[in-house]
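Self-study notes.
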Amino acid sequence: MKWHPQKISRSAHAIRSVVIMSSCIAMLLACGCRVESPPQSTTTPSSASQDTDADSGSSKTELVTLEIYKPSTGSGENSTKSEVAEFTESFAATSGTTLEEIMRKMEQPKIVITGSGATAFVQSIDGVATNSSRGWTFTVDDEFANVGIGSLKLTPPQTIRWRFTTLEEATK
């Protein structure tokens, strides 16, 4: 049997496409999450440092602030660092609370999360859905997160910033 160069070229192209698509999906899964739960938010700083265990003083409730920056609609450079967050909300949390738990408390914007725990993944925020080239990524105190929302244990006070980006944009 004789191999035709055209068939080999098409096969290599198909394999390359599958590898690229798989890589994109893996990157998006590493950054994901989901939401739809009753709110238990606090927006007053007075509750930022309350002792929840008066005897030991070891378990403090402090604020975790979530900021969501929606994608820009204009053409040009994406300058999210100078933009104002479209959604900001603070939640009382103790050390060890996961980001997934906090995300599920948000009422607005609507957040769709699939999976739970280590497989929790943000499908969409306020109708903006993850696709093959862009997804929702987040930073914790301005550091790019290297685990998903179900695995990230918070140590309040912290600020979480969500942006709709490519992985390359998120890690700049």
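Second protein, same conventions, sequence then structure:
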Amino acid sequence: MLAASGTHLSVSNAHRRIPTAADPSTVSRALTRMTFASIVHAITDHAGRPMYGLADRPHQHSVCGDCGHLSEISAPAARVPELSEVATAVFYSTCDNCAFGAADRI
């Protein structure tokens, strides 16, 4: 489901993509377990909701604080000496669409 989406999904979006009538709480628990198993990772969107994506390769994220657009950044992952795993960074900023749209409204 996450591989087919090509993006990060919220619990409700993941639930809608499952062909069976699984309960949303079951989907949430499954994604949480997969997060602890490092199969998926969770980042927080601009509304405070977890968004789940595959943990198949190190990558960073950018989240627009205005519209919530989520992008993957193909920057190399950082290795932090105090951590045993590759650190994931999430950058919260304003996407180009919102930035240029805001300039048009001035």
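Instructor comment on the second fold: Helices lie at 2-5, 11-17, 24-36, 96-105.
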